[in-house]
Write a structure and sequence with these properties.
Elements (H helix, E strand, L loop, with lengths): L12 H4 L7 E2 L2 E2 L22 H8 L1 H16 L6 H14 L3 H14 L4 H9 L8 H15 L6 H9 L4 H23 L8 H8 L5 H11 L1
Antiparallel strand pairs: 1-2
Amino acid sequence: MTHTVTPTARPNVAEELSIVPSPRQGGRPGRQHTNHRGSTRPFIALATDEPGVRGLFRFRPEAALPLNQLVDVLLRGDSTLGRGERELIAAYVSALNRCRFCFHTHAAFAAVRLPEGMDLVDRVLADLDTAPVTPKIRALLRIAASVQRGGREVTEEQVATARAEGATDLEIHDTVLIAAAFCMFNRYVDGLGTVASDDPEHYLERARLTQGYVAVLAEALAAG
């Protein structure tokens, strides 16, 4: 499946994400994990071969807990934005940052929480202007895309448009914070050259989990 990203005029998302082709096994994308440079090893020696941020969390659990608490608040906490909508913001920003692990992870989480599933995620990435989202979500995604380029890229006009479409100040605040937080996570994951799979099923398996991010982290650390 080919995704494209066009908040204004974005290139094809396969190019935007710098996806490294995975070996194929039985006609399906392989589960060999590679980083954005095609290597099967991250830049530093981790204590586990878990992909993406999961390996980094096990490497530095003292940092992992507060980071997961932040994500729990932003993506699972009480909000007038649905969980699928918030995951969509995270996936959208991660795609713009070309972060394969975070994009695939949160696209899968969004897909299992949105009635339209992955089709909606695909259509948002293909063309935000015509994607079948509400005007409020479209306005918030535009704000998120501006944050991805730089905080000063957000304009008063964008905020006014979001308000006019029904967004509350808390929803605007959380959109900016989700976008800013995922810029950090994306750079954390790729800055250390962590590896990831390009097999969508790999991410859907975890997306079907119902526990929160902190609970999943605690289970993973205990199991390790």
